[in-house]
Each structure stands twice: as structure tokens, then as C-alpha cells.
Amino acid sequence: MNQEPQEFLRSGLVAVAGPPNAGKSTLLNNLLGQKISIVSPKPQTTRNRVLGVLNGPGYQLVLLDTPGLHGGTIALNAEMRRVALETLAEADLVLFLLDATAPPPKPGGELAEYLAGIKTPVLLGLNKIDLLRREKLLPLIAACQNLREFTAVVPLSARSGDGLPALLDEITRLLPEGPRYFPDDIPTDVTVRSLAAEIIREKVFLLTGQEVPYSTAVVIDRFEEGERLTTIDATIVIERDSQKAIVIGKKGAKLKEIGTAARLDIETMLDARVLLKIWVKVVKNWSRDPRLVRELGM
Ligand SMILES: Nc1nc2c(ncn2[C@@H]2O[C@H](COP(=O)(O)OP(=O)(O)OP(=O)(O)O)[C@@H](O)[C@H]2O)c(=O)[nH]1
Ligand SMILES: [Mg+2]
Predict the structure, then answer these.
(1) What is the DSSP letter of 194?
(2) Are residues 163 and 54 part of one domain?
(3) Cβ-contact 118, 105 below 8 angstroms
(4) Going by CA atoms, what residue is nearest to atom 10 of ligand 1?
(5) I need a labelling partner for 12 at 20 to 30 A (CA). Which of 114, 253, 254, 275 fits?
(6) Which of 39, 42, 80, 154 to mutate to test the pocket of ligand 1 (most atoms within 8 A of CB)?
(7) Helix axis angle, 253-270 relative to 241-248, nearest 10°?
(8) According to the model, what pLDDT value does residue 3 have?
(9) How confident is the model at residue 86, as a pLDDT?
(10) Based on the domain organization, do 101 and 14 belong to the same domain?
(11) Is there a contact between 238 and 215 (Cβ–Cβ < 8 Å)?
């Protein structure tokens, strides 16, 4: 009788949710040790659910990054909110992340309502404690505990990694015994092609101001992985001619800056040389049109 030993595994879906700019994507990347979700200092960077798999001793976490919860009304915002709330509903555990340097959610306010409405157990992460004066932490925890019941409150810094071991302990403690959802060697369901588009969008977020990032979508027109060189053609879609001028810049300088920054990151990701060509196209008010949002924005 030669039976495989039964493995005892805690596993489950953990949705990382919270207001824009809390550091959700930074946390996901840091936990995975790999960048699969783009990050910027501007709010509303993440537009889609991003899945990352973290394997550890006795556990497998399927981490789901989500768009920041906020009340914008145009079609793009509504779609982002739908994705976030749907992901929350399918999770075994919600890791709600707040920026500890920002005021806590107002009781009765929109964010507090979302929090109160979550049916799954919620673990509260208070992020960016590298920026926080120590004496501010206890009053913040007290204020948050008025909002709903949390399975635990963990202060952390997604940037420095402080508090992440404690966070993982809390998460794994709360997860049920379950199956291995993904093979050990598959860290994400994001394709390199869509990650390339996201990297370009991240550079637009980082290198342009005002409303341009929120009006930007990126489409990959061609993605050919050769032995020595990967060839990528991409289009940056914006909403107005004035934005096109900003993205291209004087004598094409801005577009060149965006392209170079994106190419370097994509080369690191693929560990290959990349030839990246980017076009810029205006699609009037796409972010207000539900059909175009699904086609371009998400
Ligand atoms: N100092 C500090 N900055 C952080 C930390 N975590 C994230 N940030 C910064 O906060 C900003 C927002 O980070 P993101 O990870 O994009 O935040 P997000 O919650 O995913 O934002 P959305 O996708 O817009 O909802 C970036 O400038 C990060 O570098 C942290 O622990 N400490
Ligand atoms: Mg994000």
C-alpha cells in the first residue's frame, strides 16, 4: 500500500480592497516578490482585478488586487466599482487596506457603508506606518473599530515590508482547509501581453498630469516574442486632442520618455530585448461610454 501522504493546506481567495491610493497594489507586489500590478502616487491606478498566487509552508493564498472603492459616476468608475465589489463578494477573506496617514473613514460615509456591507470576514490592514508617528496609531485603531468587526487589525508598511509576516500569520490563520487552486509555479493569471499594456499605462500615470491618466487606455496591437527580440506595437488611447498634445509633448519628447521607461520595465519583466513602438489615438469620451470602457479601459 503506497499512498501519497495527504497534504494539509490552508487556502482561499483573499481580496485586497479599500479606498484608492491605500497601497493595495504595492502590497500585492511586495507579498509576491514580483510586480504584477501597477502602482502610482495618483488615485484610481488599478482598473481591473489582478490575481497573484502566494505559496508558503502549509498554505496557498490567491490574492486579488481590486480597483480602489470610490464614488465617481462616469462609466469607467462604475465599471471599476463593479469589479471591486464583485471580487469582494467571491472572496473567503477580505483584507481591507487603509492609508494610516489619511483620516479614517467617516462613520456613515460611503467607505464606511461599503465596509459595513461586506459579508465575508474582514481583516484590517493599516498601511504606510513608515510615515506615521507612533502615537497616532492607537487612536486610529480605536476609530476604525467603531466601523465594524474586524478579525484582526495589522499595522504594516507595504513599502518597507514591516508587518507583513504578522499579516500573513493572520491571513493563514483565518483561511479554511482547502485545495491547491494553482500549481506551485504559476504566480499570476496576468499575461505578459496585458502586463505590457499596464506598464505603459503606469508610465502615463507617472509622467503626465491633470486628467490625462484618467483618460488613458492602452491597447497592444502586436506582441511577437522572438528569440533575441520581442516586438511590441501599442496604442495609447486618450479622449481629446489637447491630451494627445500632452502625451506626445514637444517634438515627441514626452512620448519618448513614456516609451523608454515602459520599454526598460518590459525588458526586465521578459528578460529580453524589446522593440516598443507606441501610437497615440483620440477616442472621444471613451471613459463615459460603457461599451468603450469594456473594450478599451478594462
Ligand atoms: N510611504 C509609503 N508609501 C506607500 C506604501 N504603500 C504604498 N505606498 C505608495 O502609495 C501610492 C499608492 O500606491 P498603490 O499601490 O498604487 O495604491 P492602490 O491602493 O493600489 O491605489 P489604486 O489602484 O489607485 O486604488 C504609491 O505612490 C505607493 O508608492 C507604504 O507602505 N509606505
Ligand atoms: Mg492599485
Answers:
(1) H
(2) yes
(3) no
(4) 23
(5) 114
(6) 39
(7) 70
(8) 59
(9) 96
(10) yes
(11) yes
Position 290: which residue type? P
- CA-nearest residue for atom 27, ligand 1, is 41
Please indicate, yes or no, whether residues 169 and 31 belong to a single structural domain of this protein.
yes
List, for residues 240-276, the tens digit of each pLDDT value: 999 999 999 999 999 999 999 999 999 999 999 999 9
Residues with CB under 6 A from ligand 1: 20-26, 39-41, 43-46, 67-68, 127-128, 130-131, 157-159
pLDDT at site 8: 83
pTM (2 d.p.): 0.95
User: What's the pLDDT at 1?
Assistant: 52
The type of residue at 165 is: P
List the chain residues with pLDDT less than 50. Answer: none
Kindly identify the ligand whose nearest atom is closest to the C-alpha of 128.
Answer: 1
Residue 236 lies in a domain: yes
Cell matching residue 61:
493564498
Confidence (pLDDT) at 5? 59
Clarify whether residues 119 and 164 are in a common domain: yes
